[in-house]
Design a protein that fits this description.
alpha/beta, Nucleotidyltransferase, domain 5, five-stranded mixed beta sheet, ATPase_NBD, Gcp-like_dom
Amino acid sequence: MKILTIDTSSNCSSVALSDDATLLGECILGEDRCNSGRLMDSVSELLKAARLAPEGVDAFAVSLGPGSFTGVRVGIATVKGLAIATGRPAVGFSSLAMLAMNLPYCSAQVAPMFDARKAEVYAALYRCGSFPEAVFADAVLPPQDFLSRITQPTVFIGDGAVRYRDLIAATVGELAIFPPWHANLPRASAGAVLAREAARAGKFTPLAQLNPVYLRASEAEIAKRKRESL
């Protein structure tokens, strides 16, 4: 099954094209995660390199968040457009589970963390065998509150782990494990592993349910609530 997978949930966005358990190509976009023009250029280049038309893809997949509000919307809108145009199904998955998939068969639990700003992180705890299994579900919370849950050796990954590395080390001490820098990068190819498993089980996501998972209200929603409360 050929799957085109998109992740635009963080500072490092990417697109991957896979065929069953083979990676045909991957493009990492860097800081311009919300540049839809670059995103579609990457999609086009991957398809061109594989000599495929969009209709040659069997399914499309995308990270639903949590992460960048604008970035997540761009990725989901792109996949919805491709799915509608080609009549192909779609799969959505957690961006934190995707990040945890960087460390399959890890003997320690894995803590993917994205910087959520406002002195908070998007974070979760996973046991990672062939696939990540949630121990503590995706949440947005102050890093100190998240770290209070750490009672065993834990690998911290993601830009949130990079930003709060000193706090993590000071709080949990020798329980904290920091991998090489490349493990901090969310990759669409890791998401493709999750998407393939879901697709093989027939667990596609109806397009009407392919929606962002923000975990907290946007600035616009907060402002609206304040206005309505006056």
